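## retry 2 of 3
previous attempt timed out at serialization; input unchanged, resubmitting
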Amino acid sequence: MRNTSMRFRLAAVALVAASAAVPGAAVPAVAGDASVAADGPSAAVWGFPGEGSDWKPVTYGGGAITSRSTPGEARDERGNILHAWRGADNDYIYIALNNGPSRRLPAGAGAFAQTWTPPKVIWTDDGGRGNFRIFHTGTEGHVYQHRVQLDASYQLPGDLPDPTKIPNDTRTSNTLPVGAAALPDNSFMLAWNSQSNDAVWTTYYNGGTATYTSPRVVPGALSKDAPALAAQVDSGNDPAPWNQIVLAFTGTDNNIYMSRQRYGSSTWTSPFKVYASGTPGYTRSGPSVALSRNGYGVISLTEDRDHTIGSYIISRDGGWSGYYEENSFANTYGRTPLAVIAGTDLYYVINGTGGGRNGVLWKAVYDFAAMPKPPAPQW
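## retry succeeded, writing output
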């Protein structure tokens, strides 16, 4: 999206749990309550309250971005935004800072990095300028990172870094992306689908010691597509921070599942199904997950029914409520939409309708500041 303020206010109508004005916004299920999680609300809502239908092109210095895949993006604490995308007619990875000129990521010896999957971008705080980290799956299936630190003037460095291979034989199918979540102290977590079966793996990078943990399987998590990761770990906010990492994935039954981990723990909750009966809230593609600083978030997907966007609301108490379909029914062509939350503001980024077959578009969706204060997490 354009590098402008996202402090939009879409509606005075709050998404109050169990409100008759918002069908399907039931009281969030508790993570351990399998019966509630399995049944869920029985009605989908057409758009979030006040959601517009105007899609705008994501731009760089050369005009509208076009790509073969959904792009990635992240912001630093100063509001600088880095976009990364796969070429529209090649497999190179391009980046642009603050919608400026594009540059290809190198791969050493005059070569350029290539991928067949959407790149993922996060920003980690190192106490200084921080690091934009771009992860991509190589064409041979190994997972790579480009660590880009802005210069003293907060511009892209003159020489972009070559990729570094994530250690411990971290690899997935060469057609699947990797999930990534930024964590405090320049740290992060990655999640990916096994190259040989349906298992989901994760690893944690400790920014203080510059070391990776040995990859681990998430118990009970099985998927044929890429998992998604998001984290919200901070302090001093009202309400209290999430202090958790959320893993979302499409199960082998095409339903969405979620598992959570308390930050600082190595234990995942048992995956549970996020499902609204009677709605098209299922997919064969991997989902996207994004968390708001006030304790809410979304799991977004491209529907199997017609490739439009649907989102489940999730809350820091471990539950979820409501299924909301994007109200313009923009066609994603089966590509997973990118859900992004800047502060409390949600927007979608897609590669679909408008701007051509490979047009990358964004749309403001909802401000989660309108939501009631969520209860404390349940563990």
